[in-house]
Specification:
Length: 372
Amino acid sequence: MHPVLVPNNAAVHTQKNHIPQNTHPNPFYTRQEIKETTTTCLLKYMRRAAAINRANSLVGGLFSFRFTKHVKAMSSSSSSASQDFVSRPVIKKVFAKLQKEGDGAVVRRGISRSEQKLLDPFLMLDEFSVSPPAGFPDHPHRGFETVTYVLEGGITHQDFKGHKGTIYAGDVQWMTAGRGIIHSEMPEEEVNTGLQLWINLSSNEKMIEPNYQELSHSDIPSAEANGVEVKVIAGESMGVQSPVYTRTPTMFLDFTLQPGAHIHQNVPESWNAFAYVLESGEGGCVFGSSNASPVSAHSVVVFGPGNDGVSAWNKSSSKKLRFVLIAGEPIGEPVVQYGPFVMNTQAEIDMTIEDYHYGKNGFEMAKYWMSQ
């Protein structure tokens, strides 16, 4: 798409409960007592044993009560553990408005240049909707990656290096543009919707050879528990991990929460994170705190820094909540963007424009190729 221009390594800490051992004194008899008659000795022994048994019973009962109470407290804490996390705060909300893009296509741009400083390494997020004959005809890229996640229909893509294929609902294409690619993205069916995320590359990887990773919906690992389902496009969640290799460390998770469900997702402390809401019932989507203001569908929620990660609640009584949670490790380098070219300096942008115009340094096929 060409505008005018997500391993969870969260540590798990457990606390062991050290249970003190009861110690019981052995009855000890003096020599004088040993000399007493067998009957007297036996009576004394029985009286001491009875006293010890009563003491043991009292101590054991008290210990049992305290231990049971402690276990119940632990159980209660565990069952509400998701309520005890301190979630990252929400620092910005952006409603993605409709705008025209490509050749007759419509997108909702959730991330634009104004959010780039907050969300390094992410450059752009579009929710697209396109029907034939509209689409995204031949256009170039350099210096970053595009992640296309089809939600409905299908998108056929082809590039000047001979790569061609169609991704359908639930499929993902992770394209590393690197030093240069020219490609087209055209709709396959009558209704075609999805997300496209742009992820920056570090300066030492901007000029690598282009590369693709493609996953069908059946290849994307998922997990489900307590009314929460997650599809792990990149990174790790709920004990499952994506096979996608991310040059810029990234987490890309597709969550569906049933009414009343809640999720807490760990995010590395140094990473930037945001969510994009795809579906939500009235007042159902809440992030950061259970009493926060709800967020509507087609909104970006930017999270501030924090240690614990991100929490979300579905407060709707009847409708599911669906959102993607995306997080990544900041690159911390200057970003100079000119349309579909993203480099570190203006001089590199000028060189990119020249390379594209004259068909060199990765754009050699630009003069001869046209999509079918």
